Amino acid sequence: MAAIIKPSIVILFVLFACGERINSTLPVAPANVDLTNAFYYTINLNDRTDLTFKVRMFVDRLTQTNEIFQFAATAPGTYSILDFGRFVRKFKAFDKSYNELSVTHPTTNQWKLSDPERTRVIEFEIAETFHHPVPTHRVAYSSIAYDNVIINPFAVLGYPTGLKERGFYLKIDLPPDWTTGTSLAKTDDGYYYASDYGRLADFPLLMGSLTTASTSVGNTEFNVFTYSKTNKISAAQIVDAVGQVWQDASKFLKGLPVKRYNYLYHFDDSFSGNPLEHSSSSMFPLTEFYFAQDLGRLKTTSAHEFFHVMTPLTIHSEIIEDFNFAYPTASEHLWWYEGVTVWASIMMQYRNGSINLKDLPGQFASHGPIQPQVSLSNIGLSCYVDGTQWGNAYTKGALAAALLDIRLLELSKGTKGLRELILELFEKYHDQPFPENSFNDILTDMTYPEIGEFLKQYVKGTEELPIVEYFNKLGINYYNRWSLIENSTTEQQTLFNRWSVNF
Ligand SMILES: [Zn+2]
Fold first, then answer.
1. Do 345 and 307 meet the contact criterion of CB atoms below 8 Å apart?
2. Cys-Cys with 128: which of 142, 152, 370, 403 at CB 3.0–4.6 Å?
3. What pLDDT is recorded for position 24?
């Protein structure tokens, strides 16, 4: 018996060894993934050496017009040059037999495939952005650490030019004890899937040793995923501290515009970045030090990112709708996307009684000093070439929104303020963008000719905002910490009463 069995073992071993060799040298996409209309991406997070993402992409049916492989030069909501091509460390293309095909690197964010028709596999390593300093345009949209990873897909993944409308499958291999927080949906086969690159870019992922907590407001489910480097901050604590703003948002918006929303908080004192909004989630790379003592600090920031569901994620111009990842294209309505959002995230709390009048000056000033004689439209149009004015879109933009609200309430005799205008715009533009060049005309048509004048003077133009005069209409002394004027008129009191509540 032994003499018969022995050769069989040898044969089996050889077959097994051949199988292993073939699998490891000839990568193939899963049979249930249709590569004629989609790409299949894999990221191996079990190998986090050199703090780079090891990425493999399976492609098919590329043509000469798709020879340029593009990494994002910018991304929605950032209004900045990001140039993720700067972080690519290796880039290779292969044919179906895994023979390497040559590539060239014509510009910062582009790699050129020498033979796109024969290309079946693309492999690259791209550094995470937190710990890899760059001399200009510092960015912080991906991170790798021993117990957690942040992926904003636009910071890690690219697309062949002309094909960003194909579907994107994504499989991420990660340590088995890690938790993943994301709104990116999975297919029945267990792959993440987005119908195009713009959608893929809309779903950040936070993975690692996380705490989680959930709550509901009306029909909306809020899930909080939290990484805290020294475990000072848990998701349950955040739900307790921040939960009120979801109630405030619901009152302000007369119901919440999403069914499910994921908050991804990353607390680490060694780095922080700008929180970034998405249509069903937002990512907050913050320090533990700043927030551990007072989680209430998170409220306005959390309200802000959530309000972005209204604008720019829903109410936006055609430039935002058909977002150009390769060639940054500015929209003049940045003040609306950010300034109006700052205003709304504060006023939703004030009008629901969560903060007081005395809290408002500090909240409105939290994005830095106002630079008075600057055109808000020009700040938007120049955001990619002049980053110095960017903060003013928030500070001056928020005050412009506050004045627009007061003027609307005055003209409508207290029946339609900025909140009501936003709700009307949401109805009108929830499934279509507004035209970039006629938004101010649209706002005027939906309100009063005087609003056209307001936008011409204070948004397009460089006239100083009439802050004192407008707040006086409410009986508020703006430069005395928004204190109420003694002996205010009935007219002032009536307008103040309308301004102070969600009616
Ligand atoms: Zn914002």
1. yes
2. 142
3. 54
Query: How far apart are the CA of 481 and the centre of ligand 1, in A?
Result: 25
- Ligand 1 centroid – CA 451 distance (Å): 24
pLDDT-derived band at 2, boundaries 50, 70, 90: very low
Q: What does pTM read for this prediction?
A: 0.93
How many A from CA of 295 to the centre of ligand 1?
A: 19
The correct CATH number of 38-138+152-202 out of 2.60.40.3650, 3.40.50.970, 2.120.10.80, 3.30.70.360 is 2.60.40.3650
pLDDT of amino acid 189: 93
| Spacing, Cα 338 to ligand 1 middle (Å) | 5
- 173-183 core/surface letters (b: 16 or more CB in 10 A; e: else): ebeeeeebbbb
CATH of 310-503, one of 1.10.390.10, 1.20.1600.10, 3.40.50.880, 1.10.3720.10: 1.10.390.10
Which is nearest to 334 in space by CA: 44, 76, 6, 25? 76
Band (424; pLDDT cuts 50, 70, 90): very high
The per-residue pLDDT for 1 is 32
CA of 340 to the centre of ligand 1 (A): 9
Position 132 pLDDT exceeds 50:
yes
- Rounded CA gap, 415 and 498, in Å? 8
Taking the centre of ligand 1 as the mean of its atom positions, its distance from the CA of residue 308, in whole angstroms, is: 7
User: What would the 3-class secondary structure string for 202-216 be?
Assistant: CCCEEEECCEEEEEE
Which of the four pLDDT bands, split at 50, 70 and 90, describes residue 318?
Answer: very high
Expressed in angstroms and rounded, the spacing between residue 364 Cα and the centre of ligand 1 is 14
CA of 261 to the centre of ligand 1 (A): 16
Q: Which amino acid is at 320?
A: I
Instruction: Using the mean position of ligand 1's atoms as its centre, give its distance from the Cα of residue 371 in Å.
Output: 19
Tokens representing residue 437 in the block = 């060049």
Task: State the maximum Cα–Cα separation within the chain, in Å, rounded to a whole number.
Answer: 110
Q: Range(s) for CATH 1.10.390.10 in the chain? A: 210-305, 310-503
Residue 22 reports pLDDT greater than 70: no
Q: What is the distance between the alpha carbons of residues 318 and 434, in angstroms, rounded to a whole number?
A: 6
Least-confidence region, from 11-15, 26-30, 162-166, 435-439:
11-15
Domain 210-305: which CATH class?
mainly alpha
How would residue 387 be classed by pLDDT, with cut points 50, 70 and 90? confident
pLDDT given at position 285: 96
